[in-house]
Write a structure and sequence with these properties.
The chain is of the alpha/beta class. It has a single domain, classed as Vaccinia Virus protein VP39 (Rossmann fold). Helices cover 33% and strands 18% of the residues. A four-stranded parallel sheet has the order 5-4-3-6, covered by helices on one side. Helix 5 (91-100) links the parallel strand 3 and strand 4. The termini are far apart. The relative contact order is 0.15.
């Protein structure tokens, strides 16, 4: 068995809900394509650093059980438009893209410029099924210009209050 197969079996045996679509998405997206560091911890269900900023801050992709749990509770359907605030280096967008299919859209809003650049770089190498857009936080001034309404919103970090632009959603 591969590392991803072992990971998924361990998640299921520990009670994490994984449907066949989420399993397929995990198997279809290579975590190594989105990180600058070792992914060994990922196979042990731990968060992994995908980059370190110029200021020395480590930016992480969540542990697999957290990603699987989020995906389970979001009730993702083929063709939805997903707003992802905080890119997690592009990995989560790629997983969502696999789940949303060719008619799906993932719009990423990334407030941190260095993470934004990293995400753009990694997703340029990813062969998406649907549409993945990577925008800066200032792009939200044009939120109402999206051609398809947003079906789901996922905020991947801590926020003090719901951003004003989300009231439109």
């Amino acid at each position: 068995m591969s590392s991803i197969d072992d990971l998924l079996e361990n998640l299921k045996s520990s009670g994490v809900k994984l449907d066949k679509n989420v399993e397929y998405a995990f198997k279809s997206v290579n975590i190594e394509d989105f990180v600058d560091y070792s992914v060994e911890g990922f196979w042990q269900d731990k968060p992994v650093t995908f980059m370190t900023t110029m200021a020395g801050a480590e930016k992480n992709i969540s542990a697999p059980h957290m990603i699987a749990t989020l995906l389970h509770h979001l009730e993702i359907r083929n063709g939805q438009h997903f707003l992802l605030i905080g890119s997690k280096g592009g990995y989560l967008a790629a997983i969502l893209d696999q789940l949303l299919g060719i008619n799906g859209i993932v719009t990423i809003i990334e407030p941190h410029n260095e993470v934004l650049e990293h995400t753009i770089d990694t997703l340029e190498k990813y062969n998406s099924k649907g549409i993945i857009r990577v925008l800066s936080a200032s792009s939200m001034d044009y939120f109402e210009d999206f051609e398809k309404p947003v079906d789901r919103v996922l905020i991947t970090g801590a926020i003090r209050e719901i951003p004003e632009f989300l009231e439109v959603v």
